[in-house]
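Why run this: before we spend reagent on co-expression, it is cheaper to look at a predicted model of the complex and decide which construct boundaries make sense. The entries below are exactly what would go into the expression plan.
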Amino acid sequence: MSSQTASQNKEHFEINLGPQHPATHGVLRVKLLMDGEYVVDAEPVLGYIHRMHELMGENRTWAKYLPNMGRLDYLSALSYNLGYVELVEKMAAIEVPERAEYIRVITTEMNRISSHLLWFGAFVLDLGGFTPLLYAFDDREHILDLLESVTGSRLTYCYFRFGGCSNDVEDEFLTGCLTFIKRLRSRMPMYHNLVTKNVILMQRLEGVGPVSAEMCRKYGATGPVLRGSGINYDVRKNEPYSVYPEFDFDVPVYNECDSMARYMVRMDEMDQCMRIIEQAIAKIPEGPVMAAKVPKMIKPAAGDYYHAVEAARGTFAIRAVSEGKNQAYRMKLRSPTFSNLSLFQEASKGMLLADALAFMGSIDLVIPEIDR
Amino acid sequence: MNKANVIQELKALASEGMPDETEVAPVVEPASPEGDQEAKPKKAAPPEPRKNGLLEVDYAVKGVHVDVQINSENVVRAAEILDRAAMTLEAVTGVDWIKDKELEVVYDYSYTGGECLRIVVRARIPRDEPNIPTVSEVFGGANWHERETFDFFGINFEGHPQLEYLLLPEDCDFHPLLKDFKGC
Amino acid sequence: MDLGINVVEMLIYLVGIIAFAAGNAAYLVWVERKGAAHIQRRTGPKEVGPYGLLQPLADGAKLMSKQLIIPDGVDKPLFMVAPLIAMVPAIMIFVTIPFSDSIIARDINLGLLMIFAFASVNVLALLLGGWASRNKYAVISAARAVSQNVAYEIPMLIIAITIVMVSGSMNLKEIVDFQAGGFWNWNFLPTNGNFLGPITFVLFFICFMAETNRAPFDLGEAESELIAGFHTEYGSMGFGLFFMGEYANIVIGAALTVILFLGGWYCPFGLTDGIWWFLIKMYLLIWTVVLIRWTYPRVTLWSLLNLSWKILIPFSLFNLLASAGLIKILG
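The model came back. Tokens follow.
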């Protein structure tokens, strides 16, 4: 154990935070070595809901593996859907109709907003404020209703297909999205007044949990954690996929490296998601939503392929090795929070317990995605 | 970051100790948009272990820019080269090439500071002696990725500070992603 | 004969106080839940009785019918006695509180002192409960609760002493009588000799919230950090007593604030004085506490202690000196 030398000190004591603990939002366990209120060492222990998704990828056909993507990060499942179908389309050289690409962008960005809303609520809950959670859920409910009307499910979506989407969206969905954006726009000032500008919250977040850009690089942290450390990196901008290059949006970057910066990145990202959705709805072309010719049994050419997308929590990438069969030879899922959480042990040293938990909340953990 | 320099250094690393393998023709991946490709999938290339060397591959097809295969003892030096180039280690993983009796360890590097660059570094190790040096000294993030690879493939990362089961239960005695794993 | 009347009177007060304390504790939970639901745009309890009004009784019945689990390895006597220590002093305090001119169980000359004496026992319950539970979260919580209570008792007492100086008595009834005649005579305004009145009122209110472990100062039971804090290991009525003790303390804190600063049972305009005014003011304060709880996130222990030791205590000391000086000069 890495903590053995430290635990020689008799003043220290160990606490098991989790696997059942309100602050870990799931079944993460953190072995804390404490010196009074201070964290001496915090070692995350993973694997409580490990399901071996990568082995499943080798055992089933490319198409049958699609529903697994909704079970990784259940809060932004569509980003994972998107990453997987784009990878397979790249491998099998399937052209996607433009309307389908637009629908993918709209639904994925809606899903990203819903993920950030839930994070917002849960994060403030970590800090002891209960009410914003229910306000965020109230808004998120609208997104779930809208997405349910299109995809048929509320959480573990499996909507995209190789070559398009399973069904077309109706005009009600698009107008519903616009109505929702109008509503959320009117509520964002309230969130900022109620929560962001709250003195206690600012005190809890500012300067707490510093993660330098260098540390992010060493640990492979991506997403809002990286952007909160002053690095302007977003897969949607840096290696554009789908139709993202056609939209005008900014990547929020904050240089403070603290929990507040990560908080603000996500809050601003919701605004940018709304901008993307509005542009996409304005531009969405008519046409089919499925490619004309998609082979029934996909057998990509042998070789290995890599594809990365920007999920709500960072870079989600898949490395697939194909042997030309209808199953993958190897399916590696690179989940963003796995890397983001791996810096927790180093970064949380010497923090107060309360600050460490606020810091953990600011990383935005989704345990099924870490454990896969 | 100077892309050309990095590629030059990696090329030198890849060709080290194997003078006859330096000249590898760049891969020409058929990226045909037509649907006729999948009707008869290419089975022309017989399975043959890949040789060491550096390939500049088509990003639009493969999703990476540079693909390097090196000797297993050189992975730390490769990591240092890429660390100097301010690149990030995105993931470490393995592939079990059971027909060649080899395991492949794959390191995915990317650059987050600006222009997109993805470099994949691979090293092959014998299946019955799966030892490879750890890069967790260079990239702290490799610590967990290597533990995960140890879980799934039983690859022994020499010098790893804490090579224990990460995702699998600590008392399990199997490595599920090996191709001869039959379930438990 | 005299003794007999006294015994009857004592019994009436005893039953009345316990009923008042328990009823308040039970129904404040309902108020809190309904209030939280209102703030959060939910319905809150609604199934048991009209508007969920019987919910507290159902909760009480549930708590009482549950098995009292004593975990392995706890210090059994302390573990059992801690919930009692939480509840009994709270009930004792009600003895001295003057609800109106005539409704007061015992008109004690040093009533204020007695309240603070009993109130400081409360922290012992948290400490014992946490310590005896043999749970690390509970121990951390107990340590937090003690440091918090110690830190906030000091400014609270100093502010109370200021009021005592201004009104010239430690008898709660006399303190209230001193504020008779209309709201301009109340202690929270500077007009009545308490020259820094509004600020002392706010400070006292903050101290009262911190003393009763209410959010945003609920560090002892910080759910997202310490699960349930000192009562993590308690179930059934052990937990129920802690819970009732907490709400009884809120009632006491609000009542004390009303007595010291808001003119007790006196009408704001000097008209129909009586117990209703006392209750109205008290419940308004409690409602404020509920609103604050469901609005703010939690502070950290360090900023909490900093607030007390670096701001509240120096200021309350300054306030004490300034008030004493001004009383000497002007009065």
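Residues 98-126 of chain A form the longest helix (29 residues). The beta strands of chain A are 13-17, 29-35, 38-45, 160-161, 164-165, 303-311, 314-322, 328-334. Bring this page to Monday's planning discussion.
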